[in-house]
Amino acid sequence: MGYKERMSGNEAVAFAMKQINPDVMPAFPITPSTELPQFVSTYIANGQMDTEFIPVESEHSSMSAAIGAEAAGARTMTATSSCGLAFMWEVLYVAASNRLPIAMAVVNRALSGPININAEHSDSMGARDSGWLQIYAETNQEAYDNFVQAYRIAEHPDVMLPIMICQDGFITSHAVENIELMEDEKVKSFVGEYTPEHYLLNPKESMSVGPYANSPYCMEAKRAQAQAMMNAKQVILDVAKEFEEISGRSYGLFEEYQLEDADIAIVAIGSACGTIKDSVDELRKKGVRAGLLKVRVFRPFPGEEMAEALRGCKAVAIMDRCESYSSQGGPLGAELMAAMYRAGVTAPAINMIYGLSGRDVTTDMIDGVYERLARIAEEGAKPEDHYTYLGLRE
Amino acid sequence: MGNLTEIRWHGRGGQGAKTAALLLADVAFSVGKYVQGFPEYGPERMGAPITAYDRISDSPIRVHSNIYEPDFVVVVDETLLHSVDVTKGLKEEGAILINTSRTAEEMLPLLNGYKGRVYTLDARKVSMETLGKYFPNMPLLAGIVKVSGVMEPEVFVKEMEGSLRHKFAKKPEVFDGNMKAIRLALQEVR
Predict the structure, then answer these.
(1) Where in the sequence is the domain holding A284, given as residue range(s)?
(2) What band does B165 get if pLDDT is binned at 50, 70 and 90?
(3) How far is A362 from chain B (nearest CA, A)?
(4) Nearest CA to A168 among A56, A290, A268?
(5) For residue A98, pLDDT beyond 60
């Protein structure tokens, strides 16, 4: 089953792109995702892929070209980061509302300013309401596996939505680590061919894409889009199950690490979860019942399921690698606390902002979070606990 | 984590410290290790101080932070000793390898009281003699393999032979030069 390799996260996602060999890739380079169009172009030049690569003059154009290609009936992908994703904003919504299952590799990087090239989730979190599916990775392995699963989710008839496959800039995108790859044929037969039901270049069916809709129709279209997002939850689980059969690696909407009997838990997204797992193991050796809930799927948001997984906890720290300037925390904190409230999960939950602009996260820092949670589990949360920064210099 | 070895590289942008760190991860992977090789990115430009890291272990590596208490440090450019605290957090049971034509004794006053082992390698000399140009990373890679003991030097030479022969299939002279650099560096590190 598969074979062992060592690769950076960008190499791994590019390798999945090569194996899937989609029809079209319009792209514009931006750090730290630049390597993706670069590797794909090399694969194409070497005759290892026959994807039509479209060099464009901006990210607004790359997403627009992706929309055109996908609407025409071509399986389409692109890649971006940070300001590149921000520059796509307007057309991200067009892709989602026209139900175009484009796959986009997002290598998460801070939005300006100050100008910074390092890991932060502000780019994709900013696009959280654009109607795209979002799946995040802790490792290069997960970034690869998620990209292999991307089209099966996005193109499912019950879903038909574009998908972002996210990983942390530099931390996983540029770090060489062990990985297990799957054989080309296995990936190709898992992903399958794309046969859209409706597409622009179908001479037997004329259609228009992206038309104006009056208010008697618009709201229904948006409700249908919301339904697709709700349907995606089950599709993601079904695809993960099938993926496990061919890879031996299992995925859900989120991962529970030592969470079942945990008194104190951290909820986080992305590469920091590996560091948190090391902390959990050390604390468990000392008899501290610490756990982690690692969010894999952010859109659709598995709020009900995550709230349930946290029901037994006495204190929870929800960690956001992103500031939302709401003056009360980040997006994961806001959404998960709303879900916990709805589910009647009453454990004190605090929201911590961490790792902005690539600020390093160490096991010592995570140990400090668990210490704080242990105190909150005993004494309850004080007002000053609710919204804090981790590792901020005084 | 069983037998975790952590290595920190200090170089200047353009000297190949990142490449050397990735090569070390590569060769450690090829002998069956779990590896992490990664650079720390700042506002890099040619000549600015840069840091790169390696983790090498017998069991899977999950932590995703920089390395603050390395077992070994490699200094690719000795002029950094005046501006960067290269021994910061370096374990005393570990060692530092410095690219210099001077001796370890001469280096000591520049190492902020570091009490562990100090090794030197004149990577410029090795590189000029074997490659005819200044590429310090291949000699230093060989040097840190020997100093750290992450693998047997003979195994390392054999692995590098395989990977470089493949990499430079069309440039046999580059292959020969690099292999000579590796063998000479293994002798010259002291």
Answers:
(1) 254-389
(2) confident
(3) 6
(4) A268
(5) yes
Query: Which structural domain, as residue segments, surrounds residue B120?
Result: 5-188
For chains A and B, count residue pairs whose Cβ atoms are closer than 8 Å. 61
Residue contact A6–B39, C-beta within 8 A: no
A135 shares a domain with A267: no
Contacting residues of B for A360, CB less than 8 Å apart:
65-66
Residues A223 and A311 in one domain: no
pLDDT tens for B18-28 read: 999 999 999 99
Mean pLDDT for B72-93 is 96
Chain A residues touching residue B44 (CB < 8 angstroms) = none
**Residues contacting A335, CB < 8 A, separation 6+:** A301, A303
- Chain B residue with Cα closest to A360: B65
Do both A65 and A111 map to the same domain? yes
Do A155 and A97 have their domain in common? yes
4-33 in chain B: CB under 8 A from chain A:
22, 25-26, 29
| A382 in the same domain as A267 | yes
- What CATH code is carried by the domain that includes residue B30? 3.40.920.10
CB contact (8 A) between residue B41 and residue A117: yes
**B60 vs A contacts (CB less than 8 Å):** 178
Burial (0-12, 13-18, 19+ Cβ within 10 Å), A204: exposed
Same domain (yes/no): A260, A310? yes
Q: Mean per-residue pLDDT for A160-169?
A: 98
Interfacial A residues in 165-194 facing B (CB < 8 Å): 168, 170-172, 174-178
DSSP 3-state of A111: coil
**pLDDT (tens digit, 9 = 90+) per residue, A58-73?**
999 999 999 999 999 9
Residue with tokens 């790859």: A181
Q: What pLDDT sits at residue B2?
A: 60
- Tell me if chain B has a CB within 8 Å of the CB of A319: no
Between B34, B64, B68, which is nearest A274 by CB? B64
Inter-chain CB proximity A275 and B63 less than 8 Å: yes
Residue A82 and residue A152 share a domain: yes
- Do the domain assignments include residue A229? yes
> Based on the number of CB atoms within 10 Å of its own CB, is A292 exposed (0-12), middle (13-18) or buried (19 or more)?
buried
Indicate whether A394 belongs to any domain: no
Identity of the residue in A117, A178, A361 whose CB atom sits nearest the CB atom of B34: A178
Q: For chain B, what is the domain count?
A: 1
Helices (H), chain B: 17-30, 104-107, 123-130, 137-148, 153-167, 172-188
CA dihedral A13, A15, A20, A24 (to 10 degrees): 70
- Residue B1: per-residue pLDDT: 45
In a domain, A363, yes or no: yes
**Yes or no, beta carbons of A6 and B25 under 8 Å apart:** yes
Give yes or no for a cis peptide into A114 (omega within 30° of 0).
yes
- The predicted model gives A341-358 an average pLDDT of 97
Q: Is the pLDDT of residue B43 over 70?
A: no
